[in-house]
Amino acid sequence: MIEPSKLLRSLSRLRIVITLVVVSRAIGAASVVVPSTNCYALDNSSHLVDFSSWIGHEFEYDGKMGEADLAVRFCKDVETRSNLGFVDFGRFDKFNYFTAGSGDVNFVQRFYNGDLRNCEKSYDKLGRTAQVNIICGSCSKSKCKGQLGCICDVTYESPCRVLVELAMPCEKQGPRVFEGFTIGFHPRSWEIVYNGLTQPGFEKSYPDFSFRTEQAHVALYMTAISSHSNLVQKPIVKVFPEKGLDVKLSGSAMTGRHPTTLSPTTLVLDWRCETPRDSPYEVGITLPVDGYEPVHFTLSKICEHREDKGGDAVQGWAVFGILSCICIILSTFLCVGGLVYKIQVERQGGLDALPGITILSACLETVSGGRSGYSRAEEINSAFASQASWEQAPDYAAKKSSGRTYGSI
């Protein structure tokens, strides 16, 4: 009988070992990079199957009595051939029209924008179109004579559309891709990862894709299909070289929040150059996904000089703000105190009671070069005296000249 305490210790050790294995596997994982061509597909189990080596391979089909021959150039085009010439039934466009099939059909290729002659009113005005149903192996009713596959059957749905059944040896399954997962620099963009595949330029370090020294913060946005978003784990970061670049991760992705298409999670990189370096620093970020290959990508930063800590600048601004508040409060108290003193002690009123008004008046008079100050209150009021006072102009002028003034308006 095993003691409960020993059993708990064994279980805890087993969890630690499993966690270390998962983390080490995630850190050492390579990027599931999008293939260099668009001749690839994800099968029904989300595994990547790359058919790039088959591009341009030609499969021919001899038409029955009265029908033209048909040729499929893999991931290029479909055309019919007869004595009247060639008729194009569509081209493999730059968009990826290579998808997983259903039933006996493993993959489906779609070809659009074929010959428009007599097909001007076809679906969405795309001219003649073709669909190639790919079977991995042999035809359902017969076997191909060669080892490189053959066309099993051709069916014309209309003069503008043809269905082709093609049997061929398929490529081996690649890594399992976490479909629907995106990472970009905007909530609705996917420059770094699209549909679970790392995009070119972010699978490794490139000088042309490196961030400059002044870029102290980088925000990344992640989205995933809501039904599978709980499979995404917290990011793991690895810097090469390990010393010289200080990297800190923050954001909702670090709290364990699951990304969705309607509510993306954020991953914020705060990186600071501590040691200048000629070549860029590489920051590898890995997101483990349960049941799928980890999503891995690389960001790089060029360090031309050492960066100061961001906390020092923030602390300096905080000190400046506190000193500014103290100066404003002291100035307010001094102004109010001087106003109260002049009103209560010196018995002054109006503009005379404002602290510093005498200095301001003297400065204005000096700048204007003449008497440009203000008159005292009693002198301003004397201008509104009765008409009888105006009749004594000489006496009033004599009294006014002997009075005290600070200037005139």
3D structure, described in words:
Strand 13 and strand 14 (197-198) form a beta hairpin. This protein has a 5-stranded mixed sheet, with no helix packed on it. A 4-stranded antiparallel sheet has the order 3-4-5-6, with no helix packed on it. With 409 residues, it is α+β, with helices and mostly antiparallel strands. The longest helix is centred in the C-terminal third of the chain and has 35 residues, at 310-344. It has 3 domains: 40-168, Mannose-6-phosphate receptor binding domain (Cation-dependent Mannose-6-phosphate Receptor, Chain A, Distorted Sandwich); 182-301, Immunoglobulin-like (Sandwich), CATH 2.60.40; 327-402, no CATH class. It starts with a helix and ends in a 7-residue tail after the last helix. The model is unreliable at 14-28 and 377-409 (pLDDT under 50). The chain has helices at residues 4-27, 310-344, 357-368, 377-382, 387-391, 393-402, and strands at 40-42, 48-50, 58-61, 69-73, 77-82, 85-91, 98-100, 107-111, 129-136, 150-158, 161-168, 182-184, 193-194, 197-198, 217-223, 236-240, 245-250, 265-273, 281-287, 295-301.
CATH superfamily of the largest domain: Mannose-6-phosphate receptor binding domain
Shape: elongated
Tell me the strand order in the biggest sheet: 7-8-9-11-10
Radius of gyration: 41 Å
Number of helices: 6
Counted up, domains total 3
